[in-house]
Amino acid sequence: MDISKNTLPVLKIENLKKSFGDNHVLNGFSLELYKGENLVIMGKSGSGKSVMVKCLMGLMQHDSGTIEIMGNKISQLSQNELNSLRTQVGFLFQGSALYDSMTVRENLEFPLRTHPERLQQKEVLVEEALENVGLKHTVDLMPDELSGGMKRRVALARAIILKPKIIIYDEPTTGLDPITSKEIIQLMSDIQQKYGTSSLIITHDIDCARVIANRIILLIDGINYVEGDFVQLSKSIDKKIQAFFK
Ligand SMILES: Nc1ncnc2c1ncn2[C@@H]1O[C@H](COP(=O)(O)OP(=O)(O)OP(=O)(O)O)[C@@H](O)[C@H]1O
């Protein structure tokens, strides 16, 4: 995949700040994600990764800084405009987050409910999304009939059903065994190749970062402490950076 930094970033966060009282979580965090890129964000537990993602998705109000998705500053958008922009962003939640009382088909159809123009194609979209993750045969099953790895695949199918330009993965391999993790990472790569998506991947999983990252940003002390590729960062002599690569 050709990653061109000469084009505008599909996602840009600039000087993002967010505090809860005296707890200054984000102190000027910035990133740029380019078309076709896999950008991994790593940070210790409690470093503010989820807060950053919530601000990015418009689910939490940030104190200052700017967030631009495909050139649109999200703070300047109406709710309708924001909803429409959200269709360009797929989200794989931590731990899959399927609706247990819904079949696989109903889980996949869920993101379509706010897009009446897509509802006519729902059969085709569900089938295509499940085919991409190798699970067409599960369409009428309930989530509790699936293994953990299958649930994660279905969640991935749901994240891509609207063919988003950007996918945000929140801990995509957490709770999976090493072999299933590898399969999920391979699927993430396949989807990126097929649709030319750009991915922002929040992970603790060093193997995931090694395999998939074009670039890694370490979120430390509320800022983008350092960025580089896996090899560059893993050779760093900075103790704060080394701690991630032990
Ligand atoms: N709604 C909230 N109200 C108050 N404090 C919050 C809120 N959400 C998050 N925080 C605080 O912000 C900090 C960062 O939390 P966050 O969940 O973003 O960490 P994280 O990096 O995602 O951690 P983990 O890897 O464990 O998921 C924590 O100190 C947390 O207590």
Automatic annotation (TrEMBL):
Annotated transmembrane regions? none
Give all residue intervals belonging to the ABC transporter domain: 11-246
One annotated GO molecular function is: ATP hydrolysis activity
Task: Quote any Pfam family the record assigns.
Answer: ABC_tran
Lipid biosynthesis listed as a keyword: no
Keywords assigned: ATP-binding, Nucleotide-binding, Transport
Q: Per its UniProt record, what InterPro entries does this chain match?
A: AAA+_ATPase (IPR003593), ABC_transporter-like_ATP-bd (IPR003439), ABC_transporter-like_CS (IPR017871), P-loop_NTPase (IPR027417)
Question: Entry's PANTHER family?
Answer: PROTEIN TRIGALACTOSYLDIACYLGLYCEROL 3, CHLOROPLASTIC
Protein name as catalogued: ATP-binding cassette domain-containing protein
Taxonomic source organism? Aureibaculum marinum
